Structure of Calcitonin receptor:
Amino acid sequence: MSCNNMVNIVHIYTKSIVCLIWCMVICVQTVRPFQCHHNVLDSHHNEVDFITLVNFTNAMCARCYWYISDAENAWANDSIVTKTIELTYWPDVGIRFIINNQFRTYPFTYAALNATDWENDFFLKNFENEFYMNTFMDCCKDAKKCCEKQIIIAEEEDDDEKDNTVGHYGRPNTCPTKWDGWMCWDSAAADSTHKQKCPAMSHAALGYEPTPCAKESATKKCLANGTWATKWVEKVYEQPEHGYYPDDDTFYEYCTYPKAHEELRQARVSTYVFILSLVLCCAGVAVFVFYEQHKILRVQIHMNFIGSIILTCVFSIMFNYLLREAHFSRSEVIQHNPKWCRALVIFYKFSHISNFCWMLNEAAYLHRRIVLSFAEERHPLYYYLFGWGAPLLVMVPYVIVHALDEYDTNCWTKPMLYPELIYDILPITCIVLNAMLLFNVVRVLMTKLRSSPDHFRAGLRASLILLPVFGIQYTFYIVDFDPFDSCTTGVFVAKYCQIVIEAIQGAIVTTIFCFLNGEVHIHVRRTMNKLVPKSSIMLTEQQELEKTTSLWVYIGKAYFWLLMI
């Protein structure tokens, strides 16, 4: 072979090699490398490249196991499974876990977990129950689906780029789809906030899965520069060096407070209606005191009844604002169990139980006046002893029992089961007795009005007017229900009706006893005549009484038809 031929062959081979290398470079540049976005960072604060879907799934599944290890009561044996000391990826064997008290490392793969019977798997059999195990496995499965979604999106965008259409990477300042360790977040426009229902992993600390309507939402912020918001977290567990590192800033705080926003809404509705009742009750008491009506026994009972309602309104407003709203706004005041909090609950319960006692006093007095018309009036002391003394006798043993270490938690807001009967028995007794007295009062009224052609309607109207006075509306509270169990609109409407009925009692009672009282109307008209005698028409007492009586009948009918709607 001549020298020229050798040179030509070498030249051809050289060109071929150069072309091959050039093609390889072009291919590498045009094929997008595998990368599913996640929250695991290397020492340089960059996302770790797990190369394949299998490696990504194993790593994220390991993180799920690491996260759930914080949950109380998640493990059948706490001494065996604890937080991992290090999460390390070895290309030859995959993810390794260090298990406490075992002095061994175990291979950890999602495929092995998904293929074996959980009772025979070292990791799965240590869960306390299926809820925690399913929560962990669902986290692994969701991580895998999130990566698969990212791969599909990347492939579609590669095709779009070939067709000269704009894909995700052609849109600057857009946050990419990402797995944050608990759930998958779709791509988002810059400077926007996204919201999703809380994932199952966020409920591991609760020990149960809330119903769909009870679940709160997690939020994540996409910044103006097209990156997801991060926060600086102290390096612990898997980071051996000291300092801080950037971590995903997904807002999961409300996830551990199921029903928080709805409970806040209910508490505020209750507070607003209690404020309305409080204003009217205070105005009613002021009217009675101003016109010196409080010297009459009937009015004394009215004023004490309204006074118990005022206490109920005041402490209910404080309870709603300082405890309920604070708790569902993520405050830990109930968990800290301070003394002022327990004192507030004591006064809150005392005011409620005194309200029931004075309702029974009102019912007993009215029953005595109608059924036993000629009976001698009892001494006021009996009414005071029962109205204020009976609640005190109930609250003393209730406080003593609640102060025991077993029940002295959570600001005494949780029922004590059987010991709670110490508090419940008196209100229930009052409701039952009031119902019996109301039935007898209506029976006597129907008998006396039998000669009237509309006696049935008059008796029904009297019954409806007396319902809030006798507290019969509280029978709706005997059967407690949680609208979040069924998540139906009708049950939520019933719950709001229950809230309004409880809080509006003061407004209705004060209106009946004071603002619709004929004697009060006479006193008010006399006062007005004294203030503006020239511009007012002086009426006789009989005319004033007839005018106020007609007003009472008119408003009574309006109230009756309002209740019948």
About this structure: The chain has two domains: 53-214+223-251, 260-515. Residues 53-214+223-251 form one domain. The chain has a mean pLDDT of 77. Residues 205 and 344 are 29 Å apart (CA to CA).
